[in-house]
């Protein structure tokens, strides 16, 4: 990694600084909203079947679209792996 980007040590230091900056931003965001980070015990206590109560809008649309397409294919009698035209 020599050359324009600098040595590996310089890159590692830059990466650490950037990660630390993002961590500090998120900590400030959590402090202002009152949100908390789950600890190890809380994560392990969750059921593997649990899922978020809120829906990420981007992911929600994608899931609905995929479900709608597969539902339409099933209703039309086409197998799931039939070629799409």
Detailed description of the structure:
With 85 residues, the chain is mostly helical. The protein has 2 domains: 1-37; 53-85. The chain has 3 helices and no strands.
Q: Can you describe this structure in just a few lines?
A:
The chain is mainly α. About 60% of the residues lie in helices and about 0% in strands.
Report helical residue fraction. 55-70%
Count of individual beta strands:
0
What is the molecular shape? extended
**Rg estimate, integer Å:** 23 Å
Give the mean pLDDT.
Answer: 78
Count every helix, treating DSSP H or I runs of 4 or more residues as helices.
3
Main beta sheet: none
List SSEs in N-to-C order: HHH
Please indicate the percent range of residues in DSSP E strands (runs of 2 or more). Answer: under 5%
| Domain tally | 2
Unreliable spans: none
List key phrases describing it.
single chain; 85 residues; 2 domains; 3 helices; 0% strand
Give the helices and strands, then pairings:
Elements: H1 8-33, H2 40-45, H3 57-76
């Amino acid at each position: 990694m020599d050359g324009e980007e600098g040595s590996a040590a310089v890159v590692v230091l830059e990466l650490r600084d950037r990660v630390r900056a993002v961590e500090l931003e998120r900590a400030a965001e959590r402090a202002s909203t009152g949100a908390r980070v789950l600890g190890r015990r809380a994560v392990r206590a969750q059921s593997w079947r649990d899922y978020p109560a809120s829906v990420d809008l981007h992911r929600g649309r994608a899931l609905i679209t995929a479900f709608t397409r597969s539902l339409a294919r099933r209703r039309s009698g086409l197998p799931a792996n039939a070629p799409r035209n």
